[in-house]
Amino acid sequence: MAQAKVRKKKVATKMAYSVSTLTDYSAEALERTSAELLSALKHEAAAVKSDADRKVFRDRWMARKNGILTQINDLWLKKAPKESKREAGRMVNEVKRAVEDIIEKADRVESATPVVSGIVDITLPGVQRSIGAEHPVIRTTNEIVSVFQKLGYSVAEGPVVETDYYNFEALNFPPNHPARDTQDTLFIAGQQSRAARERLLLRTHTSPVQIRTMETMRPPLRIVIPGTVHRNDPPDASHSPMFHQVEGLAVDTNITFGDLKGTLDHAMKALFGSSVKTHFRPSFFPFTEPSAEMFVSCFICGGSGKRGSDPCRPCKQTGWIEILGCGMVDPNVFEFVKDNGYDPKKVSGFAFGMGSDRIALLKYGVDDIQLFFQGDVRFLQQWG
Ligand SMILES: [Zn+2]
Question: Counting CB atoms within 10 angstroms of each CB, which of 123, 216, 312, 349 has the fewest?
Fold first, then answer.
């Protein structure tokens, strides 16, 4: 006969419920045990009259240390023989749900107590919701993008996880080219079985979107590309492994370096004020030829290199701030999209790219890029 063998402590029925060790794990025994517990629970819940009672009741059943739920877990489930674990687990879970349900109901009664017979205290303060604000980096990105949109550029975007082909090869970084070393790349793990150009990485610049767009849109083309990029740079005051770029590309017949200079000079005046001057110095990028770095006259010290009698730190006292890289699109890059109308003998173009975090640092006089990404509301509230 399947008699439940629940070894009970010597307690009178009127005394408080306590969890006893379970020796019989048959279906009937489990059912009886859980019924006993639930009836005790309801009985105790009904006796709760005050906030103090409610706290005692909650602690007795739910306390992590030695609460009844913890005890049944230890005494009924953990000690159950292997073959009964499943059944015991099901029962313990049911009991837990029931207990949580009843305790929650008791708590709801508590939270409703300030409303006495339908009267709401209208002198209590209301629920305040903070108004969000644009992050300084997003705000700067949008400002840059809108300058180019007004010149007729459209916005293009692309994936952050890229293939080696789009991030390097099609931008004239052949395999083993030393220029790859200048972009400390974060690769996705477990790609060894793929062909080299198919291997995935976190894009190190927004330039892959240039190729992706030229593959789908025929010239003439004018696009501006905002986006997140990653490089294996240890974080410090001016570096972050994740940062933001805005890049641009214009392709048409007869585009010259004069167009590049005129466009960027206009953009800098729109961003930093009509009095800034621009200045180009030769540089190298694999995907442009010739390439240049563009400087703007320091909009903090007005180009003097000094703030009063102090040296101007943002321009390192030179009166010039390096702001972006640019150049005429290398004909080798057009070769990769030649079939879509980009014959390097017929079209030319220019491209440029800048870091929006860096520009935000300069514009707002912030001296540590980490502040942008730490999510400290006290810092971000300044833009609210
Ligand atoms: Zn300066």
Answer: 123
**Spacing, Cα 275 to ligand 1 middle (Å):** 14
* Ligand 1: centre distance to CA 239 (Å): 21
Distance from Cα 35 to the centre of ligand 1, integer Å: 79
Please give the distance, rounded to the nearest whole angstrom, from the Cα atom of residue 367 to the centre of ligand 1: 14
Rounded to 10 deg, the angle between the 356-364 and 136-149 helix axes is 110
> Ligand 1: distance of its center to the CA of 311 in Å?
8
d(CA 113, ligand 1 centre) in Å: 63
> Rounded to whole angstroms, how far apart are CA atoms 246 and 140?
10
Tokens 């439940």, located at residue: 4
pLDDT tens series, the chain, 384 aa: 445 455 544 444 456 788 888 888 888 888 888 888 888 888 888 888 888 888 888 888 888 888 888 888 888 888 888 888 888 888 888 888 888 888 887 776 655 555 455 677 788 888 888 778 889 999 999 999 999 999 999 999 999 999 999 999 999 988 888 778 777 899 999 988 999 889 999 999 999 999 999 999 999 999 999 999 999 989 998 899 999 999 999 999 999 999 999 999 999 999 999 999 999 999 999 999 999 999 999 988 888 999 888 999 888 999 999 999 999 999 999 999 999 999 999 999 999 999 999 999 998 989 899 999 998 888 988 887
Sorted by sequence, the CB contacts under 8 Å of residue 249 that are 6+ apart come out as 210, 213, 214, 221, 222, 223, 225, 329, 349, 350, 351
Task: Count the neighbouring beta carbons within 10 Å of the beta carbon of residue 352.
Answer: 23
161 CA from centroid of ligand 1 (Å): 37
Q: How far is the CA of 321 from the centre of ligand 1 (A)?
A: 8
